[in-house]
Amino acid sequence: MTNCVAYLESTLRRVINDMTKQIGNKKRETSDLRQVATGIAHSDFCREALPRLTDLSKRLEDIIIQLRDDIISEDDSGKSQSWADASEYADVRDDIKIRSPSIHEYQEHKDIPTHEYWVGSAKLKVPVVQLLKEIPPSLYYFSGDEVHPPGIYICIMPNIYVQIPFTRVLTEEHRSVPCSLKSTCTDHNCSFAHPGAPFFRVGSTLKCPSVPNYGDIDTIDSDVQEVTLTDIRMLLMNALADIGAVYYWFQVNGDAPKECVMKDIDICD
Fold it and tell me: Does the reported pTM lie above 0.85?
C-alpha cells in the first residue's frame, strides 16, 4: 500500500511541473493526462485505508476532464484550470507538496493485537494472528522516492524498514568489519573495510555446509542448484535468530529510533 501512495505522489509531482509549464500551450500532450490517470488507478488500492487520497483523486479527475476538453477544443483563451493560477485548487496543490511519505500517515498498526512472548529473560511484544495464512510476505519491492532508493525492503517492526543488501560472500575474513584506523589507514593491503567501501559477508560451513558462500551476488544463480533443504534450515536458523535479536533491540533500547528507513547497510560508515 505504501508503494501505491509513493507512486501516486511521485507521478503527480512530475505531472504538476509539466502542466505548469505547458498550460498555455495548445500542443499539450495527452500522455501527461494518462500518467495522472495511472496514478489515480494506483490510488484505488488505498481507498479504504486512505480516504484523503480518495477525495484528492476525485478532484484530480475533475481537473483532468477540464484539461482534456481544452486540449480537444484547442482552447487558448487562458480559462483552463491551471495549477499555476487557479486559487480554488490551492489546497490540492498543498496536499501534493514535495516531501518524503510519512511513515505514520500510511502505516498504522493500532488495531493489531499484541502478545508478550518470553525468550529466556527477554520479553518480546509481538503482533498476534489467528491463522498462519494471515501473516503477510516479509519482503517487498519498493520503486523508490526522492529520499530512498529502489530495492527490496523488509519491515522489521512498525515503522522500521530495512533495504535488503545483496553482497559478495567470501569464504575467508575480508572486509567483514571496519578498519580501526578508518580513513587514516595507509596500508594498501588492508583487508578491512574503510568508510564508503562495501562490506563482504563471510561464508561458513556452519551456515551453509554444501555451499559456504551461498548468497554471493556473482554466483547465487548457479549455487542455488547445489543447496539442500538442510542448508536452508541452517541459513534460516542464523538469519532469523539475528532478526529476532534486532527486533528486541529496537523494542527495548531507549536510544533506538522509533521510525527509520535503513539503506546501504552493506557500506562501511
Answer: no
Last residue of a domain, one of 53, 68, 99: 99
Copy the grid coordinates of residue 248: 528486541
**Does residue 266 lie within any of the structural domains?**
no
Q: How much helix, strand and coil, in percent to the nearest 5, is found in the chain?
A: 40, 15, 45
Query: Assign residue 120 a region: left if phi > 0, alpha if psi is -120 to 50, beta otherwise?
Result: left
Percent of the chain with pLDDT strictly greater than 90: 34
Start-end of H helices in 158-264: 220-223, 229-252
| Burial (CB count within 10 angstroms: exposed 0-12, middle 13-18, buried 19+), residue 87 | exposed
**Residues in the chain where the model's pLDDT stays below 50:** 2, 24-31, 45, 78-90, 92-93, 95-108
Rounded Cα distance between 257 and 159, Å, is 9
Domain count across the chain: 3
